[in-house]
Design brief:
- The structure is a single chain.
- With about 180 residues, the chain is mainly alpha-helical.
- The chain has one domain.
- About 85% of the residues lie in helices and about 0% in strands.
- The chain has 6 helices and no strands.
- Helix 1 packs antiparallel against helix 5, helix 2 runs antiparallel to helix 4 and helix 4 runs antiparallel to helix 5.
- The two termini are about 25 Å apart.
Length: about 180
């Protein structure tokens, strides 16, 4: 029981870190760096902030994955017997993997922006007129990705809540009686 509580807590907290960190970066970090007076500082500072966050985000993903495996192991009997639990677990795993892929791709685009930071920009995700095609493309993609990431993270949190609702006695009984 205590091991499952720890695993579930880590699983929820790391999803929360993914969600909150991505929103803080999109709204706070990227928004604040757009106010820098020097256009080259806008992309440089944003890239620096995201690079400082990346190891923590990576650790959160790793802990989320491992705690998810522990939860599935602890609930293997329930997954086998309760209607819908395995299906939801697979669905949540796919959403999580897709979100992790989007996050990784955003990091790759961010590395391009960092490499080209000296060109300057209107903001972290807003190219300035005359920007190179590589910088413009990376920033335009990041403009979308910065909002896609918290959507995936939030989706994972909602699916986790759905798992919790499935554990209510009335729902467990209903799932076992089918």
């Amino acid at each position: 029981m205590a091991g499952n509580l720890v695993a579930r807590s880590i699983h929820d907290l790391t999803a929360g870190a993914w969600f909150g960190g991505s929103l803080m970066g999109a709204i706070g970090l990227n928004g604040a760096t757009a106010e820098a007076k020097d256009p080259a500082e806008r992309t440089r500072l944003s890239s620096l902030g995201w690079k400082k966050w990346a190891p923590y985000q990576t650790a959160a993903f790793g802990a989320h994955f491992l705690s998810g495996l522990a939860i599935m192991w602890e609930n293997k009997g329930r997954m086998a017997k309760q209607d819908g639990v395995t299906r939801l677990s697979i669905y949540k795993s796919i959403v999580t993997a897709a979100g992790a892929g989007v996050s990784l791709y955003a990091g790759l685009q961010g590395a391009k922006v960092d490499k080209l930071a000296a060109e300057g920009a209107k903001g972290a995700t807003e190219p300035k007129p005359g920007a190179s095609e590589e910088l413009r493309s990376a920033q335009q993609q990041l403009k979308i990705l910065q909002w896609a990431i918290p959507v995936f993270a939030g989706w994972v949190i909602v699916l986790g809540a759905k798992h919790g609702e499935m554990q209510r006695p009335k729902n467990v009984f209903k799932g076992l009686s089918r």
